[in-house]
Amino acid sequence: xxxxxxxxxxxxxxxxxxxxxxxxxxxxxxxxxxxxxxxxxxxxxxxxxxxxxxxxxxxxxxxxxxxxxxxxxxxxxxxxxxxxxxxxxxxxxxxxxxxxxxxxxxxxxxxxxxxxxxxxxxxxxxxxxxxxxxxxxxxxxxxxxxxxxxxxxxxxxxxxxxxxxxxxxxxxxxxxxxxxxxxxxxxxxxxxxxxxxxxxxxxxxxxxxxxxxxxxxxxxxxxxxxxxxxxxxxxxxxxxxxxxxxxxxxxxxxxxxxxxxxxxxxxxxxxxxxxxxxxxxxxxxxxxxxxxxxxxxxxxxxxxxxxxxxxxxxxxxxxxxxxxxxxxxxxxxxxxxxxxxxxxxxxxxxxxxxxxxxxxxxxxxxxxxxxxxxxxxxxxxxxxxxxxxxxxxxxxxxx
Length: 399
Ligand SMILES: *Cc1c(COP(=O)(O)O)cnc(C)c1O
What we know:
Keywords: Amino-acid biosynthesis, Decarboxylase, Lyase, Lysine biosynthesis, Pyridoxal phosphate. Belongs to the Orn/Lys/Arg decarboxylase class-II family. LysA subfamily. By secondary structure, the protein is of the alpha/beta class. The chain is about 30% helix and about 25% strand. Strands 1, 11, 12, 13, 14, 15, 16, 17 and 18 form a 9-stranded mixed sheet that branches. It has an 8-stranded parallel β-barrel with strand order 2-3-4-5-6-8-9-10. α9 links the parallel β9 and β10 (about 255). The radius of gyration is 23 Å and the shape is globular. The relative contact order is 0.16. The structure holds pyridoxal-5'-phosphate. Pyridoxal-5'-phosphate binds near residues 48, 66, 89 and 354. Pyridoxal-5'-phosphate binds near residues 47, 48, 66, 68 and 181.
């Protein structure tokens, strides 16, 4: 997909606009699955991007789906994932939501002792489950997205192993899988290997185990100096570790991963229009027709997104501060070098597939953007742009 084609999409569907290149998702999936042994499984973390067409496409590639709410489970089933290929990994939900997932027949991952006990008392071993362990590995990345540290709400501390065992033995729980997810944007593959070794040690405590789910954390490059997780090297190291473990213990575990960003980030391009160029005493602002209501990552996580002016790619380079039109500080990028921006130019944010549209809102009573797929050289509208009526759709005018 070329920038020229992106400009055509902006002209056809207007801006702001999310465009997803499905071919890119396929490339990423092939790269990842090709790096690991055939008995490794990949469960796409739906929360990164749940457009139903994207889910259907990822299903067609052969992946499973990791869901964090019962509605993501329902979307996954609707998209065609069989129940065996869905893992439900909620946190801080009540037993009712877990029971809904049981009703749908998907794999269930429990992340606290309280629910583990309630579940065990009611169902004993009649429905197999996963247990989410917090290994307390500090995985790096932004503190807000790190989940394995001691202050994290996620998972059951590895130091509570005895407690998990007691619940399992006294209620007869059937624990078929262990899960850990230490965070996002893990720079060092050693974090995964360290986690895997901890999982292997846990195996002797859980006689029914079949699956070890290593979560995600695959890093994708957002800026030129960023590195990408070296999945080939990780894949071969994991294979060596798994073979050594199975030789030593006589047990065969299937390894699962849950890539979100890694599969969809790069596929996404977010197109906006430069509304105004505003020169102040301190800087030159480009004010665009969007804001953190459409792409919150820069304001929420201090994330970097490459921005390019595709309307004027060979213009002279100048320094800009790119801001949105929300009534709040709403900065996409400070002191960014862009080719000269004129009012009306189309700017593109790269790597906008993951946690872009998905975290959008109607703040400031702005409408959410349209979503377009690019597949086999053609664009397809996959979600229409919201209209004014959408703002009122669920409101009840009682006055
Ligand atoms: C968010 C999440 C993922 C995906 O993380 P990425 O950084 O997008 O790859 C995987 N597993 C669980 C349990 C998650 O919460």
